[in-house]
Amino acid sequence: MPRKTVWTEGQDTQIRRLRTEGASWDVIALALSLARWTVIERARAIGAERLPPNAAEVLDEADREPLPAGHADTWGAINRGTGLEDVPFQTPGMIR
Fold first, then answer.
1. Per-residue model confidence as pLDDT tens digits over 40-50
2. In which element (H, E) is residue 46 found?
3. Which of 24, 57, 67, 79 is placed for a possible disulfide with 71 were both Cys, Cβ 3.0 to 4.6 Å?
């Protein structure tokens, strides 16, 4: 018989956040180290089973060339919501 999953507020928040960001069920299940259907059932229980209207669109960029370190697209995404959010990237060795 399967073991009962004890859900935490942090897991629920992570499910909601990842759904808002447009993540697939597979990605969310991988992030939580749980089965896909376990996560889907929990999302239904907390009201997060549908993508919200403001969810980010997931783009398949598998064939895209890698971006250089500090590129505006990646630097902004990595630091959004942190203390470095508006700080421009600085190349190591070139301190201003």
1. 999 999 988 87
2. helix 36-46
3. 67
